[in-house]
Amino acid sequence: MSCINSDPIEKFELLFISGLKYIYEMTTHGSYQLRVDIVNSSGSSEYEVYEGFSLQHGTNYTLNVGSRIRSDGSK
C-alpha cells in the first residue's frame, strides 16, 4: 500500500511506532535521562528530569523511568 493513498491515521500510527522502535534501540545502549517540559495556558513553564529512561519492547512499548533528579523549581 502506498503512503500517498493511505489513511492519515495509519500514517500517524506507522510514524509513531517507527519512532518508538528508534527510541527503544537507542536506549538499549547506555544510560539516558528523560526531560519533561510543561507550559500551562498562561505561559508559565517548568521542567523535571528523570534518570533511568528507557523503553521496553513488546506488543506495546512500556516506558521506564527512575527517580526525579532535577527540577526547575517553579510551581
TrEMBL record:
Q: Which InterPro entries match?
A: Fibrinogen-like_C (IPR036056), Fibrinogen_a/b/g_C_1 (IPR014716)
Query: Which Gene3D superfamilies does this entry report, sorted A to Z?
Result: Gamma Fibrinogen, chain A, domain 1 (3.90.215.10)
Domain of life of the organism encoding this protein: Eukaryota
| Record protein name field | Uncharacterized protein
- Organism expressing this protein natively: Dreissena polymorpha
